[in-house]
Amino acid sequence: MLDIHLPLMLFVLALFLILLVLLNNMLFQPLVKFMDDRDNSIAKDLKAAKGLSGNSDELNAKAEENISAAKNEAAKIRQKAIDGEKSLAASKVETKQSELDKKYENFVEKLAADKENLKNSLLSQMPLFKESLKAKFSKL
Length: 140
Hints:
Number of helices: 2
Order of helices and strands: HH
């Protein structure tokens, strides 16, 4: 049967306790320390990421504000250019209109002068027409 040897049992117990102490010092404590450090590092990184996320929201808002201001400024510049071109076109139209009005007035004056000249020439040749008509009627 089985015999119980007290010295052997005490030796195994002492060996077990020594092994527990060595494993605790060499394996378990460094492993627990490593896991705690890792948890702390993860928590610190999450906190930094949240801080950067809040900062990026602020930067996005500033960027949107800058884009909006740039669009407004571009619209003002575009409107100013359009207004300038419209005024330039209006002045060109006005200049051309006045030029055409002057040409029209000159044409009307020349036409009136030609009309008067034609009327005078017809009136000066009226006695000649009368004589030619009398000659033709006398032949009939």
